Amino acid sequence: xxxxxxxLAGGGKGAYHIGVWKAFxxxxxxxxxxxxxxxxxxxxxxxxxxxxxxxxAETI
Length: 60
Fold this sequence. Notes:
This protein is an alpha+beta fold and 60 residues long. The chain has one domain (4-59). The chain contains three helices and two strands, in the order E-H-E-H-H. Helix 1 packs parallel to helix 2 (41-51). The protein is globular and about 30 Å long. Keywords: Lipid metabolism. Residues 5-60 form the PNPLA domain. This is PNPLA domain-containing protein.
């Protein structure tokens, strides 16, 4: 399958990043992600994503 880069924007869209990440896991897309980057709140979510467990991110 194709490699995917996960780029996360800042601002209000950051509230939806964890849901997208959860969907990526459910559909097996997260297995193909080779790079993650973000700005502002997207950078914070990218750091959480790099930890590999969206359950922790949901509680924060």
